[in-house]
């Protein structure tokens, strides 16, 4: 062995910011995460120039996957233009030289915080979800070693008890976001704090979803064509947010998840949460020839 | 001043090889293309000093050893690169535990894709069922695989035929037709 063989040419920075060993470790863990859908795989979670809890998990997965031909879209709570989304998108473009887009139809890689776009994702697209708390059992079992044993035993009785207690106390399931869901009939996962509206989009989807929690150092995945079933009682059906009848006051689009904007007179206006969908609807209304993709929800209903 | 970063040849190759590996496990039963022929690119994409590796071919073993990986017996390895796979190898592969399914091994083996025994695969990543032809593996291979694994424990199989790759994760149910 020569010294030459142990070194490599000088680079000002690793391509995609992460060094080779960080990428290889995330690659190995992504393989296992896909092989056991919904099971949380621990990983090292390296430092990135962003505070933990601000999307570092998703960012590390994105930086591992990117190449200069991959078009990247970043969403923060449905919006492409909020500070978090804009700075992550700019960072990826700067360190990996990737083209960026806001259009869901054009994107190859979509990193998202807490929303899945309204347009159906294709089978060549990868959705990376940022996860603040990857452990669905945390509200019922704060000790993560015991929680891991419960996952190993598929011991999810307390999850059902939690839902039962919510129904008894409040008359309905109060879980608004990160609704616990059974993946491939085996592991309960939290789908990251996406609204209930978005959970059915993961069930038997065509795209690959990778969920990564940077602060908690766990990675898990939902491969394409995988069952994702929200935990429900057979006599209390799963309900999504009651937004089917709401109309966006800016774009006029109707039947999608809305943000509520309180007004001074006590009433509310609504604005479609998937900002790019709203932008495209407005541009089409103004006479531009904009392609709108097929949406998961049709007339406010998810076809079953 | 900003300079557009350009991946090195090594980085581009490992990225493309990993993309093929990722999609071959996300869509089991479908054949994906790697940038080059052979297993060396898989070593480059996945293996470093955190790994324990077993290689049957001396060239690959040399390459894996140079990454700093520990060279071990197949029962201790997290990545096994095998030219030919005796059925008994499946008995000794690491399968992880219910607590840590990620401790299961990854077996990378040569096989003939699109000719040989007819198989039907079902499971996550497969739209309904998919039929594939895989040759070059010993008789009883798939039956033995089903016997030694109990989900979520198990190992992943990556079958390489030149530049083509096909993945069989532990979640896939394989029927021999």
CATH homology superfamily name of chain B: Bacterial phosphonate metabolism protein PhnH
Pair with the biggest interface: A-B, 53 and 48 residues
CATH superfamily of the largest domain in chain A: Bacterial phosphonate metabolism protein PhnH
**Could you name the ranges of chain B where pLDDT drops below 50 across 5 or more consecutive residues?**
none
Describe this structure in words.
The complex is a heterodimer of chains A (about 300) and B (about 180). Chain A has 2 domains: about 20-225, Rossmann fold (3-Layer(aba) Sandwich), CATH 3.40.50.11310; about 240-304, no CATH class. Chain A has 7 helices and 11 strands. Chain A has helices at about 5, 20-35, 55-65, 85-95, 145-150, 155-170, 275-285, and strands at about 40, 70-75, 110-115, 125-130, 180-185, 185-190, 210-215, 220, 230, 260, 270. In chain A, the strands form 3 sheets. Chain A has a 6-stranded mixed sheet, with helices on one face. Chain A has a 3-stranded antiparallel sheet with strand order 6-5-9, with no helix packed on it. Chain A has a two-stranded antiparallel sheet with strand order 10-11. In chain A, helix 2 (about 20-35) crosses helix 3. Chain A is globular, with a radius of gyration of 20 Å. Chain B has a single domain (about 10-175), classed as Bacterial phosphonate metabolism protein PhnH (Rossmann fold). Chain B has 5 helices and 10 strands, in the order αβαβαββαβββαβββ. In chain B, the strands form 2 sheets. Chain B has a 7-stranded mixed sheet. In chain B, strand 4 (about 80), helix 4 and strand 5 form a beta-alpha-beta unit. The chains are: A alpha/beta (about 300), B alpha/beta (about 180).
């Amino acid at each position: 062995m020569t010294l030459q063989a142990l070194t490599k040419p000088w680079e000002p920075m690793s391509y995609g910011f992460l060094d080779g060993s960080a990428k290889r470790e995330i690659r190995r863990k992504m393989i296992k995460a896909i092989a056991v859908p919904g099971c949380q795989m621990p990983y090292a979670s390296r430092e990135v120039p962003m505070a933990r809890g601000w999307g570092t998990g998703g960012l590390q997965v994105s930086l591992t996957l990117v190449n200069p031909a991959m078009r990247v879209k970043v969403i923060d709570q449905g919006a492409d233009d909020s500070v978090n989304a804009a700075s992550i998108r700019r960072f990826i473009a700067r360190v990996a030289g990737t083209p960026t887009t806001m259009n869901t139809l054009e994107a190859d890689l979509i990193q998202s915080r807490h929303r899945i776009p309204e347009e159906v994702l294709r089978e060549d697209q990868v959705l990376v979800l940022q996860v603040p708390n990857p452990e669905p059992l945390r509200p019922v079992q704060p000790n993560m070693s015991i929680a891991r044993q419960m996952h190993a035993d598929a011991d999810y009785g307390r999850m059902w008890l939690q839902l039962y207690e919510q129904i008894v106390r409040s008359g309905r399931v109060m879980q608004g976001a990160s609704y616990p869901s059974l993946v491939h009939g085996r592991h309960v996962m939290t789908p990251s704090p996406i609204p209930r509206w978005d959970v059915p989009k993961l069930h038997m989807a065509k795209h690959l979803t990778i969920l990564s929690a940077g602060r908690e150092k766990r990675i898990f995945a939902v491969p394409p064509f995988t069952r994702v079933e929200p935990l429900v009682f057979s006599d209390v059906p799963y309900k999504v947010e009651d937004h089917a009848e709401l109309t966006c006051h800016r774009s006029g689009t109707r039947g999608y998840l809305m943000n509520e904007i309180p007004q001074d007179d006590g009433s509310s206006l609504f604005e479609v949460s998937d900002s790019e969908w709203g932008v495209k609807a407005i541009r089409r209304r103004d006479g531009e020839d904009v392609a709108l993709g097929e949406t998961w929800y049709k007339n406010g209903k998810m076809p079953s | 001043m900003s300079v557009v970063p350009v991946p090195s040849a090594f980085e581009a190759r490992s990225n493309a090889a990993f993309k093929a590996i990722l999609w071959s496990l996300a869509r089991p039963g479908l054949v994906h293309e790697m940038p080059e022929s052979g297993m060396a690119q898989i070593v480059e994409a996945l293996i470093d000093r955190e790994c324990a590796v077993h290689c049957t071919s001396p060239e690959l073993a040399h390459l894996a050893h140079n990454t700093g990986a520990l060279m071990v017996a197949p029962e201790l390895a997290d990545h096994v690169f095998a030219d030919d796979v005796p059925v008994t190898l499946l008995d000794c592969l690491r399968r992880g535990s219910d607590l840590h399914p990620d401790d299961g091994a990854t077996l990378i083996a040569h096989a003939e894709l699109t000719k040989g025994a007819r198989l039907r695969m079902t499971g996550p990543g497969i739209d309904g069922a998919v039929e594939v032809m895989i040759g070059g593996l010993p008789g009883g291979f798939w039956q033995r695989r089903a016997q030694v694994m109990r989900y979520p424990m198990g190992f992943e199989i990556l079958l390489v035929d030149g530049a083509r790759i096909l993945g069989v994760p532990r979640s896939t149910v394989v029927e021999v037709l």
